[in-house]
Write a structure and sequence with these properties.
The complex is a heterodimer of chains A (429) and B (256). Chain A is built from 18 helices and 2 strands. With 429 residues, chain A is mainly alpha-helical. Chain A is 72% helix and 1% strand. Chain B has 256 residues and is an alpha/beta fold. In chain B, a hairpin with a 2-residue loop joins β9 and β10. Chain B starts with a strand and ends with a helix. The relative contact order of chain B is 0.18. Classes of the chains: A mainly alpha (429), B alpha/beta (256). At the A-B interface, α11, α12 and α13 of A face α2, α3, α4 and α5 of B. The structure holds adenosine-5'-triphosphate (ATP) and magnesium ion.
């Protein structure tokens, strides 16, 4: 009963809310998470929940199915209702504001939107450490998924080496920070004062990214020498080689892993790196130089005949993707403050491939949706233990059957369209 | 010095002699035609000139500099634009993106511009877009600019290929059967476009054709290829009256 009326309500919502600007949704979300911060716990008790549901009630509902109605009620009262009401009420003034912001300066408009988004995430994650961790890992997953999409989606090759690049980035950045700033039994005492550390952190990440990009050359040189499908095999081999190399490298801890990374990957840092990654990758794939990846994928001979240096294009795209996978790896290591080589194996590969193909090829939106979807689903289904590994693949198979290129494939991520006032356009958010 | 000069070009596919002792000298503004029955080696000659295959023997010069051994994209960037007999388009890209792509080698904003969206990049992309739209206007398909190319009718797809080849500012345009599979109306439009390209852009055109009417009307100089060898060349009149051609080519056409 409740579910069907809920659905109808959502449908009506979708229709009448198509004119709400992004600004309205963000404001609504911010108010919702602020409400949760203030009165979430009381409300949770009032509807009969032991505590604030951390992931929209999923975990609770799966552990104690009897609590499903309460969890649903909580989600509606805390998230759906406030967001809906505020988005609706503020639509027309915010449309005017969005239009004005947009026409005065795109940069300011972007900064305000990002500020609202960050504030929302910050408050939401402030409820529990678990939420904070899930959020950081999901943001890193976006970076990783998008970078793999550059190769597997935009360029249409099949690469399996992303966990390897991630490992190179993770170890590269970790070694930098641990050697220089931490008193550690593996590498001895710190060489530099910890105070300058946070400023050095971006450099360490970039160094890790560059290390991954150099590793990418080792895959690219033999794979792209001739036409043909060598990349899948060579990149898979590369992933295993990196993993066993680290396992046998006692100086970085071998199979026991590397720990005591400094705690510098806080939410703003991870958020900013993810935003920067999305921005740069999106810039790239929308330029004519980046569109050359699509030309190479769709017909290499035609690309050659139209002056595209196809070999160079492939090298650049592959190393570029590896660089961002390396950045993601560096962030990952500093979020968990511990890495070991077995993290970067076949399971990680399956996870990131699932994110890319679930979300959609050749699409920034797709990568965001895929990464968030699979990471949140993975967390939400955790109580099901082993069944999680049945449900997620099943879901993936369903997506592959009904949308072979993924949920939101081949869609351009156009910031201008996203930030515009929605008064005159038909499109929803 | 001729614009394009080919000397004694021979090519073998394994044991098959596809092209034998082929020579050509072409000047700017000239329209040359290459005719011959199916499998004569016409497309192979295009592929040899544009670097897709490496000629077994022979030399190719563009404005006196040798093209042998260059990669296809380098040869293209020197000024050899082409279309393909069996339409090689990029199925997920829009018409406008097709035409813009052909400016690839002339882009100067570099990777930095691509990554960070610099002002120079926006200027250059805007200029490329204006040029591409101009060419689409010339082909009469500007209204399709934002459509994905697979959804378009065949005649339009041919014109997209042509606009794309022209966007690289070629010195010579190679057209491999530009009217293949077209109905009479589309055929007339395509011939008009080819004439317009020749008159307005002042480049050389090298044309492979099966329909005698098209070659005879458009070309100043015609070569007839049979089993990889040029058996006759000259003006349309000379070709039309050459008994070897009538036997090898027109005779076959009459039978069809
Ligand atoms: N890549 C290749 N490998 C081997 N043989 C080839 C190859 N390309 C073409 N050939 C052969 O070379 C000969 C010439 O082919 P080509 O495509 O140049 O003919 P064409 O004159 O363009 O014919 P059509 O009018 O049918 O297009 C044919 O016998 C063909 O089978
Ligand atoms: Mg042919």
């Amino acid at each position: 009963m409740q579910a069907t009326s809920d659905k109808r309500w959502f449908k009506r919502l979708g229709r009448s809310f198509s004119q709400v600007p992004l600004l309205g949704w963000l404001l609504g979300a911010l108010v919702a998470v602020a409400l949760e911060q203030i009165g979430g716990l009381s409300l949770a008790w009032a509807v009969g929940l032991p505590k604030i549901p951390v992931l929209f009630g999923f975990l609770m509902a799966l552990k104690k199915p009897l609590l499903v109605p309460s969890a649903l009620l909580y989600v509606v009262l805390i998230y759906v209702l406030p967001i809906g009401v505020i988005a609706r009420v503020s639509a027309s003034p915010l449309n005017r504001l969005a239009g004005k912001l947009f026409s005065s300066s795109l940069v300011i408009s972007v900064v305000i939107h990002l500020g609202l988004l960050y504030a929302t995430l910050h408050v939401w994650a402030g409820i529990s450490d678990y939420r904070l961790l899930v959020l950081k890992l999901a943001l890193i997953a976006i970076l990783l998924t998008l970078s793999l999409n550059v190769v597997n989606g935009y360029m249409g090759e099949f690469s399996c080496s992303h966990p390897g690049f991630m490992a190179l980035g993770a170890y590269g950045a970790s070694i930098c920070t641990v050697v220089l700033f931490v008193d550690d039994k593996l590498f001895g005492s710190a060489l530099l004062p910890a105070a300058i550390g946070p400023f050095f952190f971006p450099l360490a990440l970039i160094l890790g990214g560059l290390l991954a990009a150099v590793g990418a050359l080792a895959v690219a040189i033999p794979s792209f020498r001739t036409r043909g499908d060598y990349l899948a095999i060579i990149s898979l081999a590369f992933m295993f080689i990196v993993k066993s190399m680290i396992e046998n490298l006692e100086i970085v801890g071998g199979p026991r892993g590397l720990s005591s990374q400094p705690d510098w990957a806080n939410l703003p840092t991870v958020f900013l790196w993810t935003v920067a990654g999305i921005w740069i990758i999106n810039n790239f794939v929308r330029s004519t130089i980046g569109k050359a990846l699509n030309a190479v994928r769709d017909n290499e001979m035609a690309a050659d005949a139209m002056t595209v240096n196809t070999r160079r294009t492939k090298f650049i795209a592959f190393c570029f993707a590896a660089f961002w996978a390396g950045i993601a790896g560096g962030l990952f290591a500093h979020v968990l403050r511990y890495v070991n080589p077995s993290t970067f194996g076949i399971q990680k590969l399956a996870e990131v491939l699932a994110m890319v193909y679930f979300g959609g090829l050749n699409s920034v939106y797709g990568s965001i949706v895929g990464a968030l979807g699979i990471s949140l689903l993975g967390e939400a289904l955790r109580p099901l233990e082993i069944f999680k590994w049945i449900i997620i693949p099943l879901l993936l198979i369903l997506v592959m059957i009904y949308r072979p290129t993924g949920l939101i494939a081949f869609r351009e991520f156009d910031v201008v369209k996203l930030l515009q006032s929605k008064q005159h356009s038909e499109k929803g958010v | 010095m001729p614009l394009l000069q080919i000397q004694k070009m021979t090519h073998y596919f394994g044991g098959l002699r596809a092209v034998y002792d082929y020579n050509l000298a072409m000047e700017t503004g000239q329209v040359c035609g290459l005719i011959g029955p199916n499998g004569a080696g016409k497309t192979t000659i295009f592929n040899l000139i544009t670097g897709i295959y490496r000629a077994t023997e022979g030399k190719i010069f563009l404005e006196g500099s040798e093209l042998n051994g260059l990669a296809p994209h380098e040869i293209a960037a020197r000024g050899l634009g082409r279309t393909f007999q069996n339409l090689l388009l990029w199925r997920h890209m829009t018409v406008l993106e097709h035409v813009k792509m052909a400016r690839y080698s002339k882009i100067s904003y570099g990777l930095f511009g691509a990554f960070f969206g610099t002002a120079q990049r926006h200027r250059e992309e805007a200029a490329i877009e204006a040029k591409a739209l101009g060419l689409l206007g010339m082909m009469g398909i500007k209204h399709c600019a934002d459509q994905v190319v697979v959804n378009l009718p065949y005649g339009v797809q041919r014109r997209v290929e042509m606009a794309r080849a022209l966007a690289m500012d070629p010195k010579i345009l190679f057209l491999d059967e530009p009217t293949a599979g077209m109905n009479p109306e589309e055929l007339a439009q395509m011939m008009e476009i080819i004439r317009q390209v020749r008159d307005e852009l002042g480049l050389a055109i090298f044309l492979i054709e099966h329909r005698m009417k098209v070659v005879m009307e458009l070309c100043e100089h015609i070569q007839t290829l049979v089993f990889g060898e040029v058996i006759a060349e000259g003006t349309p009149n000379e070709i039309q009256n050459n008994p070897k051609v009538i036997e090898a080519y027109l005779g076959k056409e009459a039978v069809e």
